[in-house]
Amino acid sequence: MELYTLLKLIWAAILCLLLIGLGLMVGMDMGVGTLLRFVGRNDGERRTALNIIGPHWDGNQVWFILGGGAIFAAFPTLYATSFSVFYVVMILLLFSMILRPVAFEYRSKANNTLWRASWDWVFLVSGFLPMFIYGAAFGNILEGVGYHFGWNGQYYQDDSFFSYLLNPFVLLCGLMSVALSVYQGGVMLMLRSENPIYTRAQRYARRGGLLAALLFAIGGVFISRMKGFMLTNAANPAMPANPLHGQEVAHTAGAWLHNFTLHPILWVLPALGLCSMVAGTVAVQHNKVIIAWWVGLGSWGGTIGTVAAAMFPFFMPSTTAPNQSLTIWNSCASAYGLTCMLVVALIFVPLILSYTSWCYYVMRGKVRTADIIHDSHSY
After folding, report:
1. pLDDT for 90-112, tens place per residue?
2. Beta-carbon contacts of residue 298 (< 8 Å; ≥ 6 apart)
3. Residues 6+ apart with CB under 8 A from 172
4. How far apart are alpha carbons 282 and 295 in whole angstroms?
């Protein structure tokens, strides 16, 4: 195997890991924001929920930066094309992400019921919308996106962005992402809160896990019947980053199951996702909170791993020009660039994991409403 091919595969694997980390850590924070109005029945309880994730939410946003940075550095063609295709959706995501830190900073600045209730709605929107978009993006790329490249490499969009959002499968994927987020956020609240927040969070975490499992199973039925993409020629894995030449792609029903047919061991991934969602729900029901939190990692890992296994080597297939679909092979940076970024990743990703673990260890324990309402410096 050529070094360039190996570097492409390594970076594809790194990107999968970063997307799993994003779903787990950012999804947990977003889930708490989504649940804020439901687990907290008064201002003190809502402040308690916010202070559970207060020390960590901004640190967890690094997974957004890492994911976007990895795509930018390792797969620049994918970065440029996808951010153009989903431009309107990215703007919605950006505004919701801007509202979130503003809500953290301003909610408790004024001791006014209407003021704080308004910011609670902002937390709901800024928690629900990013995770919905995150899941919908996976649904979009599984269905394929309408775009093509001109002779000079210029990108052209062939479909309206409304067609990306307003279809049943994309909505299903978006809601499944929200359900996993609600599950993880509910488990985090259980881990660090007391009654009555604990009991309410338990109820919503259980519902989130069951809904995610149901939507995951229904999504599998969709995928088995939808038109997928597969290479019909032996594309050169070491090809240059040029989507105009070098591959022939078929757009046909059942193609997303092709890799599972060739390599049955890959069925472990959807089994891991579905079993983790069910096992997490059982763990929540029996108050095994730490187990439930870690099982959430299996849910996200199985879900994103299933998508990666089904689509390999595709990143963003084109419905209007399938032969120009972006894959791991034709959208990478140079070998030099991938090598330099790999060195950076090997240094900084362990550092991020280390300080994140340390922060959660130091700030462990229960957050009590009685302490929060008398602390003017808390959220």
Report:
1. 888 888 888 888 888 888 888 88
2. 272, 273, 275, 276, 279, 280
3. 139, 215, 218, 219, 222
4. 11
